[in-house]
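Format notes (please read before filing issues)

Several people have asked whether sequences and structure tokens are stored in separate files. They are not. Every record keeps both together, in the order shown below: the sequence lines, then the token lines. Line labels are part of the format and must not be stripped during preprocessing.
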Amino acid sequence: FTYHDLGLICIQDLGAWWEEKTGFPIPLGGIIARRSLGIELLQAIDAALEMSIKSALENPEAVWDFVMKHAQEMSYEVMRKHIDLYVNQYTLDLGEEGIKAVEFLLEQGQKKGAFSFRPGMDLQKALEGPCP
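Then the structure lines:
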């Protein structure tokens, strides 16, 4: 959104490249927690995050003071574009396609030597029960 304001040119849009090459949505980030925290705490964290995200989606103007305070030199228009692009149906629920995207990314990372073992992951909500 802002590279052209800095005199830069786009050589490759990695998001478009990822989606074209894989057919998956872009796995931009996630929330990770240790299983050793216990299912009750994981469920409480999950519920608090879900409530916070839903509240922000239902009342977007209520979060603008916080967003603007923590934004990195962005205009309102740029922040709005970022939020509209990155806060989407995968924010609250990865769904099957989102899970496949993360699994594919980890598989490719292992094949390319980014890590020597395939990290274990349980892509499920804590509310669905304890991870195996």
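For reference, the curators noted about this record: Residues 3-128 form a domain with the D-Maltodextrin-Binding Protein; domain 2 fold (CATH 3.40.190.10). DSSP finds six helices and no strands in the chain.
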